[in-house]
Amino acid sequence: MRPRYAARRKAGSHTFFIWKPASSSSAPCECTKARRTLLTRCLSGLLEGLGSKAPYNAPSMNGTQREVRWRLMSESHFPLFHVDAFTDRPFAGNPALVCLLPKWREDSWLQSLAKEMNQSETAYLVDNICFKTKSGILKAARKGEEIELDFPLAPEEPAQPPADFLAALQVTPEYVGKSCFDYLVHVESERTLRALAPDFKLLAKVSARGVIVTSRSSEPRFDFVSRFFAPACGIDEDPVTGSAHCCLGAFWRKRLGKSEFLAYQASERGGVVRVRVNETRAFLGGKAVTVTKGELIQS
């Protein structure tokens, strides 16, 4: 399960995301928008590379609103893609399944496919998709080999840890703050961060979307490392959390005196996020890898 938003659906422990047409008022959360746009940009490059052999049209741009259209040759054979986001290698970053549909299917079918594919996220795409959010039109741009997403900055303020919060994390922090979404906990070292083994049942009682834990990196390549726990939303630890870096960028700018960072999220899968911030925005860059592509023939 992922942090909630209006277009999310659940199938057991698996979640899929329905991308509403432009007329919909549904607005996903920032971390979901980050994953969604990174996956779509990766698919854009893949589909454009297929050229005339593709059974569907490549995405197109339409003014300030990004519109993605596919025309499928068959009503019963649907293209499937397994994409790992925020990574440059397979089997790391955020895994997701993307299914291209000629039209919407009933919820029970969508749930069944999400369960069958057994990924933490399954995204369904249909014609006439625009990315409108409460923050405005979601923007993404290619930056060399990476894709950069443009989000509102989410700075934290010092906060008093709630009851059982530190007991749940089993750590003595150097600092605790809170953004509009999450608590942020600064610990003394990457070794401490990697050794964390939270009590997730206790941590789920915290009144916030999730908990970001961060420290300086012990590896010179990275400026800082982090982990993200969100048991209150149904996920103990997220592989890579784009929206958390909207807070992390602001936090580390104050401590390191710079505005551009290379960050590592030290989950089991791991992921790399390039972060740059200004006074109001956070720009999150990353790579994405298409691991497999195929076709659903039983529908």
Structure characterization notes:
The protein is α+β, with helices and mostly antiparallel strands and 299 residues long. It has 2 domains: 8-140 and 288-296, no CATH class; 154-277, Diaminopimelate Epimerase, Chain A, domain 1, CATH 3.10.310. The chain contains 6 helices and 22 strands. Strand 9 and strand 10 (136-137) form a beta hairpin. The relative contact order is 0.18. Mean pLDDT is 79; it is low at 1-26 and 46-73.
What's the short story on this structure?
This protein is 20% helix and 37% strand. By secondary structure, it is α+β, with helices and mostly antiparallel strands.
Secondary structure: helix percent: 10-25%
Strand content: 35-45%
Look at the structure and give the mean pLDDT: 79
Category from helices, strands and their pairing: alpha+beta
Number of domains: 2
- Compressed to H and E, one letter per element, the order equals EEHEEEEHEEEEEEEHEEHHEEEHEEEE
Rg, please?
19 Å
The biggest sheet amounts to:
11 strands, mixed
Regarding quaternary structure, how should these chains be classified?
single chain
Number of helices: 6
Count of distinct strands: 22
Q: What is the end-to-end distance?
A: 24 Å
**Unreliable spans:** 1-26, 46-73
Characterize the overall form: globular
What is the strand and helix layout of this fold?
Blueprint (H helix, E strand, L loop, with lengths): L7 E4 L2 E5 L11 H21 L9 E3 L2 E4 L9 E8 L8 E7 L6 H11 L3 E5 L3 E2 L1 E2 L2 E2 L1 E5 L2 E7 L4 E2 L6 H5 L5 E4 L3 E5 L3 H5 L5 H4 L6 E7 L7 E7 L4 E3 L6 H13 L3 E6 L5 E7 L3 E6 L1 E9 L3
Parallel strand pairs: 2-7, 6-7, 15-16, 17-19
Antiparallel strand pairs: 1-2, 3-4, 4-8, 5-6, 5-22, 9-10, 11-12, 12-21, 13-14, 14-15, 16-17, 17-18, 19-20, 20-21
